[in-house]
Amino acid sequence: MWKKRSLFSIQTQSSDSDSKILFRPTSATITSSKSLPKLEFRDDWTSMAVSLSTNAVKLYSPVTGQYFRECKGHTSTINEISFLGASAPHVFYSCSSDGTIRAWDTRSFQQVSCLSAGPSQEIFSFSFGGLGDNLLAAGCKSQVLFWDWRTNKQAACLEESHTEDVTQVHFVPDHQNKLVSASVDGLMCIFDTSGDINDDDDLESVINVGTSIGKLGFLGESNQKLWCLTHIETLSVWDWKDARIEANFEDARSLASDSWTLDNVDYFVDCHYLGEDDRLWVIGGTNAGTLGYFPVSYKGKRAFGSPHAVLHGGHTGIVRSVLPMSSMGRGPIQSPSIFGWTGGEDGRLCCWLSDDSFHPNHSWISTSLVTKSPKIRKKSRFQPY
């Protein structure tokens, strides 16, 4: 029998006055016409930005669930949100298929700047970095664009490295002059952005994943490795410095499905890496809204373990975003029992709570999580690949 914990469910409404917080057990049914595909926190946990299918961004408190206000301006799907950080703590950015990257002030809830990639363009991802921490890189169709975000002037355009939509751009943590781009064309490209940026001189290496790339992130000592999730639900781990593959899970969805007792894993939402313990998890979900945190062994014997935690009963549809708050001890002191938040296509924004046994020195995959996975019962499953 699966145990359930309580959660907050926030119902998105069409006007500011209608927004409210409803406290319900996990079996509650709360509906909305607006999906919630992207979530992002401010570093000090005082604000959480949530993008809606209405092309607006709403701001909440991630600790109390209090609704603040809405930021409007985009005219198409919002693909990514990011808070700028210590250099401008009250500013967050959002990119959209309307071809713009917009900056918003969380005090006035107004747009303070707008970068445009041009007519008929779409921006799928962006990242801040560079040696002077002044560059903003963006994936725009088959191009990688660069601006100086302090002056809003375009610095470079790379248009020869990819042939299809660039879905991800990330400056490498601890290597801020290095940029990794990934595309529907199946390629990941590593660039050096320390000088004048161009395709000929600054493309250091190319990694061929072989299929359309959806997400990537970094792991390992000095972030010298990266994980890659594809649009056909495969997972691979690479050493980006040497352009060498370390692990390839072409049957990732089948491996995850075989390691728990619920329905088949239908898709992967994200990966999370805990540097203190050098541990990687892939987060798989079902079409009914249940999520599992599956530990990934990518050294030596390559395998998925049974889920360390299962988030069950909050969503009724596909989940698009997962943000743990208590990972690596960075959770808010005011509410150490909050595990994190999830947003889905069912229009629900769910806050997941751990139990009273939570200790701030424990990792966020400890036994105090929402639901503990039972012992594995192996059974025959459909093989997706």
Walk me through this protein's architecture.
The protein has 385 residues and is mainly β. Strand 9 and strand 10 form a beta hairpin. The radius of gyration is 20 Å and the shape is globular. It has helices at residues 199-202, 252-257, and strands at residues 7-11, 20-24, 38-41, 48-51, 57-60, 67-71, 78-83, 91-96, 100-105, 110-116, 123-129, 135-140, 143-148, 153-158, 166-172, 175-183, 187-192, 203-208, 213-219, 225-230, 235-239, 244-249, 267-274, 279-285, 291-297, 303-304, 309-311, 319-324, 338-344, 348-353.
Overall pLDDT score: 81
Record the strand order, biggest sheet: 2-1-30-29-28
Distance between the termini: 30 Å
- Portion of residues within helices: under 10%
- Classify the secondary structure makeup into a structural class: mainly beta
Main beta-sheet strand count, sense and barrel state: 5 strands, antiparallel
Low-pLDDT sequence parts: 1-7, 11-33, 327-334, 356-385
Number of helices: 2
Q: Strand share of the residues?
A: over 45%
Q: Shape, please?
A: globular
Our Rg estimate from Cα atoms comes to 20 Å
Number of strands: 30
